[in-house]
């Protein structure tokens, strides 16, 4: 089971692994906490962003081979312009939800599916979005309630990412609100990562999954992350997005596994 905060998060962090597991015959279940209704997008009059994003989620899930998709129904907490928790969030915002109640709802699905593995985020919530941090808390607790023994934290190896962003900054002018230094404490360092999953065989599905979230490739005053990723030429895309990273906290630092079902020790 893959637990994400919003539609499109699965495409960015775990799509290759999901497609790989489905191709291997595993039952892959995708759960999102919210419909992502506060994401930036250029919508037609009368369109509801949350409904659109859920439709995109189902399309993405089908492309990846998911057997089931669920939304817990919490409100998208949004993100303040300076980062952190938005003050104008809805009453049912996921960040304000009772963590135990949300964990029990997720645990019920884990138990129903008899899931062997649940995938959440690292404690930082990746880049720090409040809903991503809440996914970590709720997912970790749900695994304990359900008795799901293997918890993987989807993340990014921040060490090469920071180096890449610093080099890119010499040739590309980032938006004013973008600070490369924030990535120095985002995601996970190389030494804490336990799983490096090669998904190059599945980058076609991963790219299709990203493309399914068309509403998130537009909107805002600067280039959207998804739009930038989809502009990467296909051969380079396979190289850049061909690895997905995970941390399993009950394994010793320095562990180097290549598949979610790899056992320790090998």
TrEMBL record:
Record carries keyword Transit peptide: no
Gene3D superfamilies, per database record: LmbE-like
Molecular functions per Gene Ontology: hydrolase activity, acting on carbon-nitrogen (but not peptide) bonds, in linear amides
Family matches, as InterPro entries: GlcNAc_PI_deacetylase-related, LmbE-like_dom_sf
One protein family per Pfam: PIG-L
Domain of life the protein comes from: Bacteria
Keyword Zinc: yes
One GO process term, biological-process aspect: glycoside metabolic process
Keyword vocabulary terms for this entry: Zinc
UniProt-listed PANTHER family: 1D-MYO-INOSITOL 2-ACETAMIDO-2-DEOXY-ALPHA-D-GLUCOPYRANOSIDE DEACETYLASE, N-ACETYLGLUCOSAMINYL-PHOSPHATIDYLINOSITOL DE-N-ACETYLASE-RELATED
The protein's name in its UniProt record: N-acetylglucosaminyl deacetylase, LmbE family
The species this protein was found in: Nonomuraea jiangxiensis
Lineage, opening ranks: Bacteria, Bacillati, Actinomycetota, Actinomycetes, Streptosporangiales
């Amino acid at each position: 089971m893959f637990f994400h905060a919003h539609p499109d998060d699965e495409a960015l962090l775990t799509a290759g692994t999901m497609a790989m597991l489905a191709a291997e015959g595993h039952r892959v279940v995708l759960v999102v906490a919210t419909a992502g209704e506060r994401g930036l997008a250029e919508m037609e009059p009368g369109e509801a962003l949350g409904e659109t994003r859920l439709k995109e989620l189902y399309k993405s899930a089908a492309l990846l081979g998911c057997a089931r998709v669920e939304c817990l129904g919490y409100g998208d907490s949004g993100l303040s312009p300076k980062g952190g928790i938005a003050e104008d969030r809805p009453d049912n915002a996921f960040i304000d939800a009772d963590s135990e109640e949300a964990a029990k709802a997720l645990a019920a699905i884990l138990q129903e599916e008899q899931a062997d593995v649940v995938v959440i985020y690292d404690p930082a919530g990746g880049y720090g979005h409040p809903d991503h941090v809440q996914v970590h808390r709720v997912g970790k607790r749900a695994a304990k309630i359900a008795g799901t023994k293997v918890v993987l934290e989807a993340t990014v190896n921040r060490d090469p990412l920071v180096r890449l962003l610093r080099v890119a900054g010499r040739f590309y002018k980032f938006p004013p609100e973008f600070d490369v230094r924030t990535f120095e404490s985002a995601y996970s360092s190389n030494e804490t990562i336990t799983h490096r999953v090669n998904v190059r065989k599945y980058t076609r599905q991963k790219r299709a999954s990203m493309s399914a979230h068309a509403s998130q490739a537009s909107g805002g005053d600067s280039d959207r992350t998804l739009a930038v990723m989809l502009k990467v030429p296909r051969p380079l895309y396979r190289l850049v997005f061909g690895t997905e990273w995970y941390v399993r906290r009950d394994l010793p630092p320095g562990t180097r596994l290549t598949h979610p079902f790899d056992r320790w020790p090998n």
